Amino acid sequence: MLAKAETLIEALPYFQRYAGCTFVVKYGGHAMGDPEAAKDFAQDIVLLKAVGINPVVVHGGGPQIGAMLKKLGVESTFVDGLRVTDKATAEIAEMVLSGAINKELVGWIAAAGGKALGISGKDGGLVTARKVTRTTKDPDSNIEQAIDLGFVGEPARIDTTILETANKAGIIPIVAPIAAGEDGHTYNINADTMAGAIAAAIGAARLFLLTDVTGVLDKQGKLLTDLTPADIAKLKADGTVAGGMIPKLDTCVQAVEAGCEAAVVLDGRVGHAMLLEFFTSRGAGTLIRKGE
Q1: Cα angle, residue 209 at apex, residues 282 and 121 outer, rounded to 5°
Q2: Rounded to two decimals, what is the model's pTM?
Q3: Pair 195, 258: CB distance under 8 Å
Q4: pLDDT one-digit tens code per residue, 29-79
Q5: DSSP letters along the chain, please?
Q6: Interior CA angle at 95 toward 153 and 110, to 5°?
């Protein structure tokens, strides 16, 4: 009992400092398919709300979209980690993200004693998307060529009214990374990108990216607990970080440089990792904050 009391006392300064602030949490990866991990995650989110912090959850669903496409016999191709999305694929992505996954998370929050609102970027004009463009160099001619990714988008404008309204009503927004463009089309948006853009727009105190890795590691495999954008540029230049970690760190840098106080990359497979990171002095992931 004494240990529990000491844990609460250790967390007290964090409760006091961040009461009334907003945390944006990107939830995805393999943790989404694990009922125990989902239960832990939902409890963490409900606890944040109970202590006066306003969590906004943005979820992914790439594996679930892939499974549904496979079941329906639709083949997928990827460019720079982004799924090339034709109209049929976009409709399936919206069905899986805004339907099955979004409402499942709402259910987990309810089971943990919270109230959640499942929405997508379309609702309340939250996100207006623009089409993502990518180029590649022809290896023979070295000429850059445009690649059409179809209905893959990125946030162009964000109106946080619906999030602020939900927060004030004691409701936790659960956001699917789907949005409409000014052209009227539906676009699938990378969940990390969506979370980062929302965190910047709402001036979040924290952006949490829950992943399938411990955090950012140095060349010896040791966790790097504190980084600035300048540190990240060096790590990218010398090859310490590569592959899928680069776009995640780019999202964190863009968010902190655009108004989010700090971003954290941490392992969503660890039970209550978010609480360990935030409410203890030890931490559990990699914190990125704007340098001096």
Answers
A1: 145
A2: 0.90
A3: no
A4: 666 767 888 888 999 999 999 999 999 999 988 888 888 988 888 887 777
A5: -HHHHHHHHHHHHHHHHHTT-EEEEEE-GGGGG-HHHHHHHHHHHHHHHHTT-EEEEEE--HHHHHHHHHHTT----EETTEEPB-HHHHHHHHIIIIIIIHHHHHHHHHHTT--EEEEETTGGG-EEEEE--EEEE-TTT--EEEE--BSEEEEEEE-THHHHHHHHTT-EEEEESEEEETTS-EEEE-HHHHHHHHHHHHT-SEEEEEESSSS-B-TTS-B--EE-HHHHHHHHHTTSS-TTHHHHHHHHHHHHHTT-SEEEEEETTSTTHHHHHHHSSS-SSEEEE---
A6: 105
Question: The tokens of 120 are what?
Answer: 């997508």
Q: Pull the structure tokens for residue 134.
A: 């990518």
Look up residue 207 and give its amino acid. Answer: L
